[in-house]
Amino acid sequence: LMPVVFLLPVFFFQMTKSVTNPEELGGLASQMTNDYGHLALQGRMAAATAEPEEIGFQIRTRVQELGHGCIFLVQKAGALQICPTDSYTKRELIECARAVTEKVSLVLSALQAGNKGTQACITAATAVSGIIADLDTTIMFATAGTLNAENNESFADHR
């Protein structure tokens, strides 16, 4: 899901740059539509599995809002292709691209909110792995006899 979300702003950026070359807008709009289709499918699955349910609702709502923004952007791209010299349509296209970019960031924040538990587990697992590595290193030095004992006991007695 995340790679598709990251690709969408690239196409919006390309669309705003294509204001000077309106003939490129058709292909970009088609690619963006395909990418949004993939995002919508994956977003539906992410929303269905999200916990708590509110996060799923947020993902679903924000993906839908992004879809509406994409529709407006494609419409403005079509309008600019019809009349490539219309400066008002160019400004509208750029504004739609900005709005869609904002909606992409809202989708990302909803996905990250649903990912907090997963991220917490990854962070905990990393911390535990670090502790285990430190213990293994200490055991290795203690077994080699390079650690100073506080009394005359051996490491083997405590291991």
Provide a brief overview of the structure.
The chain has 159 residues and is mainly alpha-helical. The protein is 83% helix and 0% strand. Its main location: cytoplasm.
How many domains is the backbone divided into? 1
**Uncertain segments:** none
CATH class: Mainly Alpha
Number of strands: 0
Major pleated sheet: none
Straight-line N-to-C gap: 47 Å
The whole-angstrom Rg is 26 Å
- Shape estimate: elongated
Bin the helical content.
over 70%
The string of secondary-structure elements, in order, is HHHHHH
CATH-defined topology:
A middle domain of Talin 1
Structure notes:
This protein has helices spanning 2-17, 25-49, 53-82, 87-114, 116-144, 155-158. Helix 1 (2-17) packs antiparallel against helix 2 (25-49). The chain has a single domain, classed as A middle domain of Talin 1 (Up-down Bundle), CATH 1.20.1420. It has 159 residues and is mainly alpha-helical. Residues 15-116 form the Vinculin-binding site-containing domain. One of its GO terms (biological process) is cell-cell adhesion. Keywords: Cytoplasm, Signal. It holds the Pfam family VBS. It is found in: Cytoplasm.
